Amino acid sequence: MVIKAYIMILVYVGKLEEVLSKLRGIDNIESIAVTAGDYDVIAKVAVESLEELMETTDRIQMVGNIKRTTTTVIEKEIAV
Amino acid sequence: MNLRIRKKYLFYVLLLVSSVLGAVSASLDGVISHLYIENSWVFGMAVMVAGIPVTLTIAGVLSLPWRGRSLGARVDPSFRRLRMLRRHELGYHVLAGLGNTVVTLSHFYLVSVFVDPSTVLPFFQVVILYLLVAESLSEKDAPTLAEIESSVIVTFGAIMAAMSLTGSLNVEALLVIFLVMNPAWVVLAVYQRKLKHLVVDDRPNDAVNIRTWNVLFTAGMITVAVYLYRPAFFHQALATVGDTFPWLAATMAVIFFSYILYIRALGIGKASITQAVKASTIIFSIPLSLALSGVLDFSFSASPTLLAFKLMGITLVILGVSSFALTEVKAYVFINARPGYRMAELLDEVWRIRGVASVSALAGEYDMMAKIRIRTLGKGYERIIRRLEAIPAVEEFNWQSILKEWEEI
Fold first, then answer.
1. B56: burial class by Cβ within 10 Å (0-12, 13-18, 19+)?
2. Across the interface, which of A2, A42, A78 has its CB nearest the CB of B351?
3. What pTM does this model have?
4. What number is the ipTM of this complex?
5. pLDDT tens digits for B227-252?
């Protein structure tokens, strides 16, 4: 079963471009949005298991210059 | 490292490539109709007879595995292999096939009347206005003023770009265009889009299977239509296929890829906007028309007045398409619900707000997140914030504007 989640990311000032280019190379990420508000980047991920979700979150945290990540799992989604 | 995340502009790239291929195919149709098969019924039938093996062969080749995925996954990532029809697709395929049957027969009728592809193609573009009306009737997809403006600019631009002072228009042809072909195209576009949005075997439906099955349904229906109308045309078509097969196969192969890219784009954007961007086919058909006019005996007037018209038309099309691409505001809205309300009802209530592209129930800091897609920030207040504030179950929400986005599509 596919598990989807949003990972909200806070990045250290001045490192956004570098973080983005690294995030774009990570598997299982469906979309990456640069946002203005409480978070700097919101990534949507689609994985096969919670184990894989942890691995993906790990990979995101390993790209460096990331202050904090908050992961929220999607329980139900309605989309066009 | 493999860069899998592509920019949102993929929608426009898909449509522009589809437009180039569409223009090439329309030119090939012009040549075939001019040199080999003048009768439009015979042409429609013959192209389908040749189209079935060509389409199945291409879809078969695209099903072959290559480096862990199918070849076709390079064209549409949702594609795995050619498969049997699923029951829940059947109704949509029948309607899309019916739409395509009428479009195909009318198209070949028009090609046989006009020959010059740049004269025929603009009339397809008026369908954008039909789609806008159709979308206005369904609340969820109601177009904004900016969308109507850009669509009208593109439509008129396309018609201007294709204006020809040499050809003559007959009333019968115009009636076919406005009363038969364009409504049928709306049916085809709407049901192909519905098919693309279906989930088949736990993944999004793919354009290769949709197109392949659409060709098979259309071929069946055209066979019945032609046979009922004049059995002689049916036999004539079968007799012609042998001599003209390379031409027919070429046009069907080109249009196959044009459709796949178009169907993929339909899965991403609204039908009217997809169609508006595809109006750029007109621009690409002009050089092809010029080239063809050297080979075939129809004149492509190059008078300064006409060229000025065409230039203005092309400018309008480019402006309209760019304004579609650039005037979009996206945001995430995180929502916390008030205790004592059912989450499923709140989810539905948020989903019903116009401009909400998706809504998700979340486990974690927030209860829900809505993704917003609107044309102007002003609409964000009028349409989204005011509506959210009016929902009693919403305790608080947090708006995060999206400044830039990459999506894997």
1. middle
2. A78
3. 0.73
4. 0.89
5. 998 899 999 999 999 889 999 999 99
